[in-house]
Automatic annotation (TrEMBL):
<dbReference type="GO" id="GO:0046872">
    <property type="term" value="F:metal ion binding"/>
</dbReference>
<keyword id="KW-0547">Nucleotide-binding</keyword>
<feature type="binding site">
    <location>
        <position position="337"/>
    </location>
    <ligand>
        <name>Mn(2+) 2</name>
    </ligand>
</feature>
<feature type="binding site">
    <location>
        <position position="504"/>
    </location>
    <ligand>
        <name>GMP</name>
    </ligand>
</feature>
<keyword id="KW-0464">Manganese</keyword>
<comment type="similarity">
    <text>Belongs to the RtcB family.</text>
</comment>
<feature type="active site" description="GMP-histidine intermediate">
    <location>
        <position position="427"/>
    </location>
</feature>
<protein>
    <recommendedName>
        <fullName>tRNA-splicing ligase RtcB</fullName>
        <ecNumber>6.5.1.-</ecNumber>
    </recommendedName>
</protein>
<feature type="region of interest" description="Disordered">
    <location>
        <begin position="179"/>
        <end position="203"/>
    </location>
</feature>
<feature type="binding site">
    <location>
        <position position="212"/>
    </location>
    <ligand>
        <name>Mn(2+) 1</name>
    </ligand>
</feature>
<feature type="binding site">
    <location>
        <position position="408"/>
    </location>
    <ligand>
        <name>GMP</name>
    </ligand>
</feature>
<dbReference type="GO" id="GO:0006388">
    <property type="term" value="P:tRNA splicing, via endonucleolytic cleavage and ligation"/>
</dbReference>
<dbReference type="GO" id="GO:0170057">
    <property type="term" value="F:RNA ligase (GTP) activity"/>
</dbReference>
<feature type="binding site">
    <location>
        <begin position="401"/>
        <end position="404"/>
    </location>
    <ligand>
        <name>GMP</name>
    </ligand>
</feature>
<feature type="binding site">
    <location>
        <position position="104"/>
    </location>
    <ligand>
        <name>Mn(2+) 1</name>
    </ligand>
</feature>
<dbReference type="InterPro" id="IPR001233">
    <property type="entry name" value="RtcB"/>
</dbReference>
<keyword id="KW-0342">GTP-binding</keyword>
DNA sequence: ATGTGC
């Protein structure tokens, strides 16, 4: 029997079909382990179109990597490491790589629910989008909801959303509905450069630019009513999605450590197939410093999204003339999709108890790993202690934003996520063309007019160029990405939303 | 993503 669909090749990289939606680059040559792509045939064609597969293969060269390196269905090429990649690396004998987490540390999404229905909002979209745009800082450069000093930035870096709670920008329930309760205890503000802190000083509570946005949406579909009920979602309900990260502070931190790693660990760099994968060996001072600084930037991003939430509640109070508590504007969940974290996972191990390939393993054991998720979302299944108590029986909420002309999804962590993808699923639609190409194909104002006239979506942006760069047409089909997640059982669809108002840089 | 380069 021959099966033509069993093998695919892109630029000399061969993938074998393991089962539906699972493609493997078998270990060969210098690869430490095998790599896997989680995709339908259609999405695999898109993934094979740029450098993603080569980058994924390179990831398997990282010392201490556990099997397999994973590429999500929305994967595309990134700086050294695919956006949509998961690399789990032994935290004792392996390494940590800033490029495998991304420049925008703790880029992520949070969803705020409301008691409003679409009818409550119809006819007032322009008023709401103007009020949001006027009150929530966006675009490149400085200007945040609070302008603060160096010492306060340090407190934010160390304490995360706990700082926001103390200063009246959060309620306790906000912390409880955030990944890690909005605070990474491993944060080390001393490991963040003065330059990074200075950039952060004027950016606490700001959206930024690029694909970052705040979007008012309506729930259009509910697929798992029991889970949706636990999450407080019903058809026709209005929700708010906030997508942003750690701004210049996270970017500066990533850059600082990439430069230090290149000079202080040139030996490891020489062994890697791509300079952009630069990594600090586990246990080195630099690995510890980077982990502490990266965790601090994670906290900064959570405070950033919290302050935007606070201001959003104020705007809704003014527009709808009710208290935000009465409007039911509770945080549903906040989840990162660019993050590196020490987590314990069961992996194949050799006689010394270190991660190895399935073929060479003498057994399986729990190991502490640096799980690098870059454009990938934690998706822990029901029962895990890391999940907020209110959701523990149904699974962790996963939020997957689509483009501004398409739906977004709420999923819940699937029962297979731990076995298939180190407790992860996809993070979005994924680009299909460069920003430069997008600006040739689209004109911002035309995109805005069409969205408003054809789909009743009201978009307001600082820059027309940004709207062109983020036009719906430059993104993959988010429905297809989510379908693969569902089919693999790594993230199960709970509800779908559709845009009403969108503000962006 | 990003005071839109190293």
């Amino acid at each position: 029997m021959t099966d033509d669909a069993a093998v695919r090749e892109f630029d000399g990289i061969r993938l074998e079909r393991v089962r539906e939606h699972v493609w493997e680059i078998p270990r060969e040559g210098e690869m430490g382990v095998a790599a896997r792509v989680l995709a339908s045939e259609e999405l695999l064609e898109q993934i094979g179109d740029d450098m993603t597969l080569e980058q994924l293969r390179n990831v398997t060269h990282l010392p201490g990597i556990a099997e397999p390196a994973v590429c999500m269905p929305d994967g595309h090429q990134g700086y050294g490491f695919p956006v949509g990649g998961v690399g789990a690396v032994d935290a004792e004998t392996g390494c940590i790589s800033p490029g495998a987490i991304g420049y925008d540390v703790n880029c992520g999404v949070r969803m705020v629910r409301t008691n409003l229905t679409y009818d409550d909002l119809r006819g007032r979209e322009a008023e709401l989008v103007d009020a949001l745009f006027a009150n929530i800082p966006s675009g490149l450069g400085g200007g945040g909801i609070v302008e603060t000093d160096r010492d306060t930035v340090e407190e934010i870096l160390e304490r995360g959303v706990d700082w926001a709670l103390e200063h009246g920008y959060a309620v306790r329930a906000d912390l409880e509905h955030c990944e890690d309760e909005g605070r990474r205890p491993d944060a080390d503000a001393d490991a963040v450069s003065e330059k990074a802190k200075d950039r952060g000083r004027t950016q606490v509570g700001s959206l930024g630019s690029g694909n970052h946005f705040l979007e008012v949406q309506r729930v259009t579909d509910v697929y798992r009513p029991d889970v949706a009920e636990a999450y407080g979602l019903e058809p026709d309900r209005i929700v708010v999605l906030i997508h942003c990260g750690s701004r210049g502070l996270g970017h500066q931190t990533c850059n600082d450590y990439l430069r230090r790693i290149e000079t202080e660990h040139a030996d490891l760099l020489d062994e890697l197939p791509d300079k952009e994968l630069a990594a600090a060996p586990a246990g080195s001072d630099l690995a510890e410093d980077y982990y502490g600084a990266m965790c601090a930037a994670i906290n900064f991003a959570w405070v950033n999204r919290q302050l935007i939430t606070h201001r959003t509640r104020r705007v809704f109070e003014r527009v709808f003339e009710e208290e935000w508590e009465t409007l039911g504007m509770d945080l549903l969940y906040d989840v990162a999709h660019n993050i590196g974290k020490k987590e314990v996972h069961e992996v194949d191990v050799d006689a010394d108890g270190r991660p190895t390939t399935a073929a060479e393993a003498v057994g399986r054991a729990e190991r502490e790993l640096y799980v690098h998720r870059k454009g990938a979302t934690r998706a822990f299944p029901a029962g895990r202690p890391e999940i907020p108590a209110a959701y523990r029986d149904v699974g962790q909420p996963v939020i997957i934003p689509g483009s501004m002309g398409a739906g977004s999804y709420v999923l819940r962590g699937g029962r297979n996520s731990m076995d298939v993808a180190f407790g992860s699923t996809a993070h979005g639609a994924g680009r299909t063309m460069s920003r430069t190409q997008a600006k040739k194909e689209f004109w911002g104002e035309t995109v805005q007019d069409e969205l408003r006239d054809q789909q009743q979506i009201h978009v307001k942006a600082q820059s027309g160029a940004t709207v062109a760069e983020e036009a719906p047409g430059v993104y993959k089909d988010v429905d297809e990405v989510v379908r693969v997640s569902e089919a693999l059982g790594i993230g199960d669809t709970v509800a779908r939303t559709f845009p009403v108002c969108n503000i962006k840089g």
